[in-house]
Amino acid sequence: MQSAVQYRFLKSSEDLERFVPAWRSLWARDPDALPFQSPEWLLPWWRQFGNDELCAVVMERDGQAIGFLPFYVYEDAKARKRQLLPIGVGTTDYLDGVFAPECATEEIGGAVEFLLDGVEHDEFCATQVPGHSRMLEGMRKQGLGTREEGLGVGAEGGPVFLSEAEGCSRMAAVRMGELPQKIRRNAMYYRNRALREGKLELVAADESNWEEIFERLRRLHRERWQTRGEEGVLVDERVVDWHRDAIPLLLEAGLLRLIALKLNGEVIAVLYSLIDRERPGRNGRTQYFYITAYSPDHAELRPGTLLIAYAVERAAGEGVATIDMLRGDEGYKQIWHMEKTPTWCVTRLASGQSAERNEESAA
Fold it and tell me: What residues make up the domain containing 181?
């Protein structure tokens, strides 16, 4: 008979840093964990965006970590609301916990209840949760209604709402010759145009050049958004520092694919992407295209199209099965014949919040 699971909080950044070896080991054991749940991605995020109200839950059995829910409290001063949110929210396309294979669904649900009962908050909001999430299943076991109903009532506290969050766009990773006809024709046409101007090459970042490629990504991204009269996410120095901290960690862990397209030695487009680790039992790896940027000065060569075509082909050659271009409804995703994969948002009001919301609606 298995020992009972024990739950405990990590309440400080120091606690989180100390937990990293166990977190990394647990992430490696979770067959469903994505790069976005790794400490290489989330710990640098916390260093930039975290606060003094960490309330991550560690699940342990016989002293060994078997589950982890990375949450914190965000004080929304404008709405006068304390929100219980997952670490990485806002800038991460898939948010979830990390669980060992032997961790039972009911035990995961118990960890969620431990979190909700042990933290003062007005609203719990777990968004961008993938459909395969065991955390999502655990929450449903703890009183959430069926997915079709979209509404349930928690065993303790206020009502629980389940809604569809922003979906992500996916396609198969294929060689250039297997791309949709229009994309293939365009990619080959612009590749030939670029080759007439000189040498075209794809360069992957390593320990020696990642800083140079990332800085070029930042500059190109800023220039591209400025043509629209906007700034873009890489203007925020905290975001930049987060990625500068994360990239060498992701690179060392084999989770990064930072790729530059060069023409005659000049970088004309950059792709910042993450990739699944190879795991026994997982059918095909996925590569996640997080940020792309290209030179407006070379727009006539369609460097964005060229970069994606080359990157997809490179991924296929590496054994990647799926390309995930994450959130957003940019027009090029329709051209690339993407299919939407839904994600989910679970919102649970703390006890008493339902009545307050009804009063506000009536007013």
Answer: 174-318
pLDDT for 207: 96
Query: What one-letter code names the amino acid at 357?
Result: R
Query: Do residues 123 and 213 both lie within one domain?
Result: no
Q: At 50, which CATH number? A: 3.40.630.30
The predicted-structure confidence for 214-241, as pLDDT tens digits, reads as follows 999 999 999 887 777 777 789 899 999 9
159 exposure class (CB count in 10 Å sphere: 0-12, 13-18, 19+): middle
Taking only the tens place, the pLDDT of each residue in 76-85 is 888 789 999 9
Quick one: which of 158, 93, 120 has its CA closest to 356?
Answer: 158
Angle at alpha carbon of residue 290, lines to 288 and 295, rounded to 5°: 125
Structure tokens that stand for 319 in this block? 């054994």
Q: Which residues contact 166 (CB under 8 A, 6 or more apart)?
A: 128, 327, 343
Q: What are the φ and ψ backbone dihedral angles of 219, each rounded to 5 degrees?
A: -65, -45
CA distances from 334 to 64, 145, 343, 349 (A): 46, 33, 19, 37
User: Given pLDDT bands bounded at 50, 70 and 90, which one contains residue 281?
Assistant: low
Closest CA to 109 of 146, 39, 59, 73: 59
Domain co-membership, 267 together with 184: yes
Kindly report, residue by residue over 24-75, the tens digit of the pLDDT.
Answer: 999 999 999 999 999 999 999 999 999 999 999 999 999 999 999 999 999 9
Both 73 and 118 in a single domain?
A: yes
Q: Above pLDDT 70, what percent of the chain?
A: 90
Apex 121 CA angle, 119 and 125, nearest 5: 105
Instruction: Tell me whether strands 285-294 and 320-326 are parallel, antiparallel or unpaired.
Output: parallel
Average pLDDT over residues 273-298: 88
123-130 and 81-86 beta bridge pairing: parallel
User: What residue ranges in 30-189 does DSSP mark as E strands?
Assistant: 56-61, 64-69, 71-76, 81-86, 98-99, 123-130, 151-153, 159-172
104 and 73 co-located in one domain? yes
